[in-house]
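Hi F.,

I've been meaning to write this up properly since the lab meeting, where we talked about keeping a consistent format for the predictions we share between groups. The idea is simple: the sequence comes first, exactly as it goes in, then the structure tokens exactly as they come out, then a line or two of notes. No screenshots and no reformatting. I'm using this chain as the first example so we have something concrete to point to.
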Amino acid sequence: MKTIEQLLVDDAASTMADDGFTGRVLSALPRPVARHAGWWKPALILGSTALGCVLAWLLAPSEASAFQGVLDLAASRFLTPGALAVGGTALTLAIAGAVLAADA
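Output, unedited:
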């Protein structure tokens, strides 16, 4: 005796006579339009990368390192040059990640 699942699989595999109805419907449908990725995705990625480079260059301190910036943030000193550089870099990476995730 067949199970319900096997009966459904057999039924789905069988064809039904439609006197050419399916062919007529498919031929009446418009042809699919090729979708192009567009110019906006590369522009957004390159733009966010350029913004990140500019922010990193403007906010990067000349004498402090990124490690010092992380230590400043951990000690709740948010307006030091190192903390601003690390925050700007993190924000830029978050924006770039959001741009890439929006495509998916």
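Notes:
The chain has one domain: 4-103.
Residues 22 and 30 are 14 Å apart (CA to CA).

If this format works for you, I'll send the rest the same way.

G.
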